[in-house]
Amino acid sequence: MGAMAELVQAGGAAIEVRGLAKSYGGVHAVRGIDLTVERGRIFALLGPNGAGKTTTVEILEGYRSRDGGTVKVLGYDPARQRQRLKSQIGIVLQSSGMDRYLTVSETVAMYAGFYPRPRPVDEVIELVGLEAKRDTRVLKLSGGQQRRLDVAIALAGNPDLLFLDEPTTGFDPSARHEAWEVIRNLAALGKTVLLTTHYMDEAQYLADRVAVISNGLIVAEGSPATIGNRERARARIRYRLTDGVAPPADLTAPPGPDGLTELVPDDLTTALLGHGTVRISAAKVVNTSTYYVAAMASFAVISACYTNIAISVSFQRDTGVLKRMNGTPLPSAIFLGARMVHALFVAIVLVVITAAFGRVLYSADIPTGVTLLRFLVMLVVGAASFCALGFAIASVIPNADASPAIVNASILPLLFLSGIFIPLGSNAPAWIVWIARIFPVRHFAEGMQAGFLGTPFHWTDVLVVAAWGLGGLLFSVRFFSWEPRT
Question: Is 280 contained in some domain?
């Protein structure tokens, strides 16, 4: 009868799970998952921290009881037949639990002695690539070598099934790849391996089959190729409209029985962003993509000139670069002018890239003809002025560590108040419009947007931006410091 029982246990899948559930108080860690792992395969359970991977594996190992479902591991129920199962499985825990003062060979030999039919110690050490370290104490091993020793301990009893719980967490890339090779070699021995990981590349490299677990549920399962290429699948949009609202023409479809409209667009981003409209005044409505391309172009110039100059100059001053530069024969004005020209070049490149992508991908309108010339005037004047303002704010920044906070605190509120991120519209509070009109960001944004949106171009906007730039330049000449502040 005993021989017949062993024969029965040897058949079928290595792991069969149906409806597995586990809760901790009111938290459902595992919520009715189904899982099958065939013999001789490497199966990866992929998911983020807290998804339920470790709880699932600990139930399979017999460490933890389950609340519901059926589990068979090598034909045994780990909750009721754990003692018989233990001699046939090997376990690699998330953290090592070894005597630090034993050598590699002593550690493997000790654990091999706990099993009825162990593998030869030297063979195990060779399998994990620790021959050169067989007489080295555990405390002298690197992290990757200790992980190899973990696998050696799991192999010492010559198990049929190995559980590897996040075997490379915390490893550097080199150590991870070393561990991968050890795990791949296990398949050549005919072992079944269940590993948990939150690295997609690890699952893709090692596993024959992958299950993705999230919030205690298996949300996807298949070969690594099918799981890894899910981003190629076409996206679906499902929505329900409120009364009196009509969707854009390209987003219409008959509603289903549940009242939801479902469609599969060729380009999700274009479908969501490329067809809407933005009302920028009582009489003016523009395409969403055109509005935000114009906004991003304005933001790109401010970031390249004001934000970048202020922060980088503060860091160069604290590290002594400015002091060293000021001690050379190079005129100070030439150095600062070169920084402004560089920032202007970067700003132009960013605007060109933004406009090109907007035109090609979202059919956004771009400036042409006389409108383009006016746009370029505002671009150059604005870039120069924000460079000068960047030097001005750098003059009052106490140290490099404070520069990001001070720069962002000075510019982000103005970006929101100036309609760059969110159009103000005709119903904006008067005090917001009044504040926005004082500072240069609103004037610069309106001048830049005129090229894209077809709104009136006002030369007074150029003059206001230039005046602020001149004020920033005069302030910088008076207060700019080349040396670190004490």
Answer: no
Domain that holds residue 371: 287-479
Which has the closest alpha carbon to 105: 64, 141, 142, 67?
Answer: 141
Domain match, 383 and 433 both: yes
Q: Please report where in the chains the tokens 């100036």 appear, as a residue.
A: 418
pLDDT, one tens digit for every residue, the chain (486 residues): 344 344 334 457 899 999 999 998 888 899 999 999 998 889 999 888 888 888 999 999 888 899 999 999 999 999 898 888 888 888 887 666 788 889 999 999 998 888 888 989 998 898 888 999 999 998 898 877 888 888 888 888 888 898 888 877 666 777 777 778 778 877 777 889 998 888 888 888 888 899 999 888 998 888 887 775 555 666 667 777 666 666 666 566 777 777 777 766 655 555 555 556 666 666 666 677 778 888 889 999 999 999 999 999 998 888 888 887 777 777 888 888 999 999 999 999 999 998 898 888 777 788 888 888 888 999 999 999 999 999 999 999 999 889 999 999 999 888 888 877 777 666 678 888 888 889 999 999 888 888 787 788 899 999 999 999 999 999 998 998 888 876
Q: What angle do CA 343, 345, 349 make, to 5 degrees?
A: 115
In a domain, 281, yes or no: no
- How many domains does the chain contain in total? 3
* Residue 444 maps to a domain: yes
Quote the CA–CA distance of 370 and 346 in Å, as a whole number: 24
Pair (191, 119) in one structural domain = yes
CATH (domain of 152): 3.40.50.300
Q: What is the DSSP string of 411-428?
A: HHHHHHHTTSSS---TTS
